[in-house]
Amino acid sequence: MSAATMDQAKAPAATALDYDAIVIGAGMSGMYQLIRLRELGLRARVFEAGTGVGGTWYWNRYPGARFDSESYSYGFSFDKELLQDWSWSEHFAPQPETLRYLNHVADRYDLKRDIQFRSPVAAAHYQDSSGTWAITLADGSRHTSRFLITGIGALSAPTLPRIEGVESFRGQAFHTAKWPHEPVDFAGKRVAVIGTGATGVQTIQEVAKTAGHLTVFQRTPNWCTPLHNRPITPEEQVQIKANYDDLFRRCRETFACFLHTADPRGTFEVTPEEREAFYEQLYASPGFGIWVGNFKDMLIDRAANKEISDFVARKIRQRVKDPKVAEMLIPKNHGFGTRRVPQETHYYEVYNQPNVTLVDSKATPIERITERGIKTTDAEFEFDIIIYATGFDALTGAFDRIDIRGKGGLALKQKWSGGAQTFVGMLVQDFPNMFMLLGPHTALGNIPRSIEYNVEWVTGLLRHMQQHQLTLAAAKPSAVQTWTDHVMSCAEGLLTFEVDSWMTGVNSNVEGKQTRTIARYAGSAPAYRAWCDDVAARGYQELDLS
Ligand code: NA7
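Above: the input record for the complex with NA7. Below: its predicted structure, written as tokens.
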């Protein structure tokens, strides 16, 4: 609330609070939310653990980190001048460029003056008596606000393997999401990478270029497909800038806000020759087309899924010279696209190099990390550097790491112990005035598109509250139930939910996250937005507003 509006309300005077709104995190969510909060005239403060803005793109500095959504579909879309002002250099931008872009946005809007860096939030407690929030930072300092907005990311709580001895290794060890700011030199070094998800794949193909010897510890192979990245030509740059309206209109219309969307045909509605030709065309095209622009039944029909899986398996066999290694790289326990598809650039060819070894960590599990390297059930390896590309405690993990308490001191972690429950992924029952950007059960897909929508919806709600002199917003239990039931029903019949992955809330390295949950909304982004828009249009009847 602006100071004036707040004074008229019966709640505690705004001036008694440090801020109207506290935002946790200065990634893309927190940055955009700060811009909108300022426009509402609110006194806002962002607390950020890192030393700079950028969130995901601040932390994930590992070698080879880059987009696998088209750069021009990924940036902020809300400012037309900014779109014209910034020129992406490649179709899939590398992390340093994205971080430069986000700093450019922060400078353009003078955001840093309202962001407190090096300030991890340890606790956020709702104050029953006043309907406000008290935030405690890791340094013990306390800050109060009317609203709490979380911009803490869906994949931001890195997890190390639960393997004995992780602390004992004497060489250099890094988690990909906690990469040092200084360059790491691999030349001539014995390097291990544990993990072959989207991050591991990007890391491996880069590190293999210079490492003396690279040993990859793969527990589960993933289906990877070519990214086909290249520089944006001056002519393409002109085209892109002239077509931003169409480009973002397309993102608004597609299932998951990517430029690609499912082909309207079923796999078996075409001849085998047509099918093969279509797969070839997708395999030769840049980006996620082969995953999200494939036949419409690929992720619901087992026979359809087998067709594309067999196609990609053939490609792997063609690209990897040693047939035994090729078989190790072909997934056997899940079909194509049922887990996140890593996008690669000469990844499979890496295993043809004499300086690269693939170890099957399912057949010969890692027993312990030693002072000198890694001991499996089969052998002992010595390394100079160990890279943990072991992923994140996804979707709810970043929430679990902060002591968030709602009404009556109820812990959010406790509230979600049986699975996340939200209203449209943005509100939680018994946690009034807390709004989540990218919370569990929101639409994910092309993340910045989801972020912009979440921020705009929260901003609309805050504007409505200002206009009606309201100071408290809470999700009604019935609304939470309806939304949660809807999220569950969207997941029915999808092959994706039959597989362990971060998308099904499984992380072998986190206590209590060994069974699959439906932590991700699997409906379409347009349907999600229609639902949320309708709530706003009907005056937020699903919320208790006072
Ligand atoms: P992912 O996709 O969760 O991948 C983590 C990888 O680490 C995966 O291959 C895991 O094998 C492996 N892992 C994790 N713990 C262990 C242990 N203890 N031993 C051996 N191997 C292990 O994380 P990413 O960072 O690659 O990607 C996450 C998302 O971030 C990505 O989808 C993008 O959207 C951005 P597993 O498959 O569990 O057998």
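Notes for the reader.
Residues 155, 161, 163, 194-200, 217, 219-220, 340, 361, 366, 389-392, 502, 508-509 surround NA7 (CB under 6 Å).
The domain at 3-53+111-157+394-545 is CATH 3.50.50.60 (FAD/NAD(P)-binding domain).
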